[in-house]
From TrEMBL:
<feature type="binding site">
    <location>
        <position position="7"/>
    </location>
    <ligand>
        <name>Mg(2+)</name>
    </ligand>
</feature>
<feature type="binding site">
    <location>
        <position position="384"/>
    </location>
    <ligand>
        <name>Mg(2+)</name>
    </ligand>
</feature>
<keyword id="KW-0963">Cytoplasm</keyword>
<keyword id="KW-0479">Metal-binding</keyword>
<feature type="binding site">
    <location>
        <begin position="283"/>
        <end position="285"/>
    </location>
    <ligand>
        <name>ATP</name>
    </ligand>
</feature>
<dbReference type="InterPro" id="IPR004372">
    <property type="entry name" value="Ac/propionate_kinase"/>
</dbReference>
<feature type="binding site">
    <location>
        <begin position="331"/>
        <end position="335"/>
    </location>
    <ligand>
        <name>ATP</name>
    </ligand>
</feature>
<feature type="site" description="Transition state stabilizer">
    <location>
        <position position="180"/>
    </location>
</feature>
<protein>
    <recommendedName>
        <fullName>Acetate kinase</fullName>
        <ecNumber>2.7.2.1</ecNumber>
    </recommendedName>
</protein>
<dbReference type="Pfam" id="PF00871">
    <property type="entry name" value="Acetate_kinase"/>
</dbReference>
<dbReference type="InterPro" id="IPR000890">
    <property type="entry name" value="Aliphatic_acid_kin_short-chain"/>
</dbReference>
<comment type="similarity">
    <text>Belongs to the acetokinase family.</text>
</comment>
<feature type="binding site">
    <location>
        <position position="14"/>
    </location>
    <ligand>
        <name>ATP</name>
    </ligand>
</feature>
<keyword id="KW-0460">Magnesium</keyword>
<dbReference type="GO" id="GO:0008776">
    <property type="term" value="F:acetate kinase activity"/>
</dbReference>
<keyword id="KW-0547">Nucleotide-binding</keyword>
<comment type="function">
    <text>Catalyzes the formation of acetyl phosphate from acetate and ATP. Can also catalyze the reverse reaction.</text>
</comment>
């Protein structure tokens, strides 16, 4: 069975066509600048040159048309006909409280996705546009929605409730939802597999550290707390997001800068985090380079980021009542030995000892703790697309 995985952003679209018979990626691609000048599609197929199409794409339907054309292209494609695509799996950011697992998309599901727009105004609309565009172009192909929030629906009430008037939860759905669920679930299961243990017997802390970052406490295979909240702004300091701050800062800034609440929200989401502290970049590679050249604010940004991750690891060790395994994943977690070392430094009291030689690794599943460490430490490449494809296949096969 071949599954097309689609991850639609506001002006970009990532896709992968996966052959589930042997779990191999047939093609992967990225469409950028949808609806703006300079639209471009880049498709990669193992062992071949990149296939690039530059032509105007006025909307996501145009983009998906082009993706399908690229996949069936006589020279650069990987399938003969669109009918070879058995199902489409869509990444959807917010499923609210309705979805604790992936779901076959029908009219009822589409209605609830619309209802979730209020909760994720930046993310859900492009996801919905992508699904509608695919439905128009492939009306008889089954489609599945895989939610970033679903894995965290197992959190207990005391973890997901905010200490606000209770009615705000019942009337407006204000609670912690958590994100990156597909990634946390995937790397936790890979870690259990690598340890040769049943995930039901393990306490795992997963650190998804990329542009957006979150830490999750996983007990017996289910999420019991996570650092992102009502929106992906809560928790760690990130590329451009502030993470946790004193909420009183918002009204202070509104008055002091004489700006609207929306402008402050924009500052917290787009101008803060390691970008705001360093003044250099939101990309950790640039910040690491600047710090190495002696830029003190760049070093502070790295120190602050690592400190916050370490705090969550400590907090979640308490939440879990002990930890068997810590996992690092995503762009930074997979590729920055320095970050992993700084976070693990001082965690020896938990029984977690990093082996600095084994830690000198990028982008491949590796156990990086010392032989006498009580806690297993791993770096594991995340693969949200494969997870989405697996869920999609399972749901479509049982429909
Ligand atoms: P997202 O999916 O949230 O956009 P990624 O998981 O792709 O982000 O992570 C992107 C981040 O990973 C970049 O900001 C970059 O700083 C970091 N990163 C990628 N490779 C490296 C590397 N070799 N060293 C340090 N940081 C890296």
């Amino acid at each position: 069975m071949k599954v097309l995985v689609i991850n639609c952003g506001s002006s970009s679209l990532k896709y992968q066509l996966i052959n589930m018979d042997n779990e191999s990626v047939l093609a992967k691609g990225l469409v950028e600048r949808i609806g703006i000048e300079g639209s471009i599609l880049t498709q990669k197929v193992e062992g071949r040159d990149k296939y690039i199409i530059q032509q105007p794409m006025k909307d996501h339907k145009d983009a998906i048309k082009l993706v399908l054309n690229a996949l069936v292209d006589k020279v650069n494609g990987v399938i003969n006909d669109m009918s070879e695509i058995s199902a489409v799996g869509h990444r959807v950011v917010h499923g609210g409280e309705k979805y604790a697992s992936s779901v076959l998309i029908d009219d009822v599901v589409m209605k609830s996705l619309e209802e979730c727009v209020k909760l994720a105004p930046l993310h859900n609309p492009p996801n919905i546009i992508g699904i509608n565009a695919c439905k128009e172009l492939m009306p008889s192909t089954p489609m599945v929605a895989v939610f970033d929030t679903a894995f965290h629906q197992t959190m207990p009430e005391e973890a997901y409730m905010y200490a606000l008037p209770y009615d705000y939860y019942t009337d407006y759905g204000i609670r912690k939802y958590g994100f990156h669920g597909t990634s946390h679930k995937y790397v936790a299961s890979k870690a259990a597999e690598a340890m040769g243990k049943d995930i039901k017997d393990l306490n795992i802390i997963t650190c998804h550290l990329g542009n957006g970052s979150s830490v999750t406490a996983i007990k017996g295979g289910v999420s019991i707390d996570t650092s992102m909240g009502f929106t992906p702004l809560e928790g760690l300091a990130m590329g451009t997001r502030s993470g946790n701050i004193d909420p009183a800062i918002v009204s202070f800034l509104v008055k002091e800068l004489n700006v609207s609440v929306e402008e402050v929200s924009d500052i917290l989401n787009k101008k803060s985090g390691v970008l705001g502290i360093s003044g250099v970049s939101s990309d950790f590679r640039d910040i690491e380079d600047a710090a190495a050249e002696g830029n003190k604010r760049a070093q502070l940004a790295l120190d602050l980021f690592n400190y916050k991750v370490k705090q969550y690891v400590g907090a979640y060790a308490a939440t879990l009542g002990g930890v068997d395994c810590i996992v690092f994943t995503a762009g930074l977690g997979e590729n920055s030995p320095e970050t992993r070392e700084a976070i693990c430094h001082g965690l020896e009291f938990l029984g977690a000892k990093l082996d600095t030689a084994k830690n000198k690794v990028r982008g491949k599943l590796t156990q990086i703790n010392t032989d006498d460490s009580k806690v297993c430490i791993f770096t594991i490449p995340t693969d949200e697309e494969m997870m989405i494809a697996k869920d999609t296949m399972e749901i479509v096969s049982h429909k």
